[in-house]
């Protein structure tokens, strides 16, 4: 077992068999935060031994997504570039009687008639998990499991153990679904003389029905690229994903990446599943937009509202919705006329609104500009639409309201 005083090395090992999953984002983030908090090393390893399912576009999506999030790795490599390394371990295991070439009877067309199996010592395995505490498995039920198709084609369990050993990985931080892989990997570690890393299995991420988020069931809703394309800030996604299965032990919810690095530890990682709440993500995103410089906020706002109907043409106005609450049409008409005059003269609209009542003035101005009950504030809309277009819309609202009095 590694000492806590030794340099920490973690790794994230996605497979390029699909677009970057938000669950993989969360696992990458926890690895990254743990390494940075402790001054350790974070390795990104592409597990591309499945030649039939791997695609370059998936690898590109993974690499680009993690870079966009700011989760930069310290080392990078692909398993496909390390075939000779695995071959050496396989040959030695066979020579030492720890693995053997097994003749198989293919049950289906295309199946191999020969694989390499690990010689299971049939023992109980116990390990301490940073999240789940003591975990025990009886490996007898695993039998002599397959570790390679041939000496040239290693499978997942062998390649993972060899890579972790050679990279001196101290902590394996991964999703809960991998906990059943641990006993096989510990057996292989013992067979090749590798030190056992410390394990931490993270809680599963679920939807509102408490069903695990999966590519098959949820489709594009589990891809990072979906949220990137919808305009979410990378800082907001990082912040929100950190809160899925972890909390800081305080009331704070909005964090920068550097703040997360400063406070992250495994004592506050929970065992129970984490609910992916899009509404909470939206709130976190809005809070991060507020932290941006004004120009940055404006660019994002323009992207968000560019397809709104009121951006393309004159808004449809409902005369019953122009006034704020119980304010009369006559008083609203007065406020609109005064607001138009102030804007024409480049005066201080807020000063007038504070004197007359913000809702009384700003609601009809905003509604006159957009025709929508929910939209950016009137000052933002005045800036986006420009003085000329804003004055035309205010004049039109005045005409519509005047006709009903």
Key features of this structure:
ATP-binding; cytoplasm; 13 strands; 405 residues; alpha/beta; Arc Repressor Mutant, subunit A; ATP binding; three-stranded parallel beta sheet; four-stranded antiparallel beta sheet; elongated; tRNA binding; 46% helix; aa-tRNA-synth_I_codon-bd_sub2
Describe this structure in words.
This protein has a domain at 309-402: Orthogonal Bundle (Arc Repressor Mutant, subunit A). It contains 18 helices and 13 strands. It has helices at residues 22-37, 56-69, 83-95, 156-166, 182-192, 215-218, 224-229, 234-242, 257-263, 278-290, 294-305, 309-312, 319-322, 329-344, 349-356, 358-370, 378-385, 387-402, and strands at 9-12, 41-46, 75-78, 99-103, 114-118, 124-129, 133-138, 146-150, 153-154, 171-175, 198-202, 205-206, 274-275. The strands form 5 sheets. A 4-stranded antiparallel sheet has the order 4-5-8-9. A hairpin with a 3-residue loop joins strand 6 (124-129) and strand 7. It is elongated. The termini are far apart. The relative contact order is 0.10.
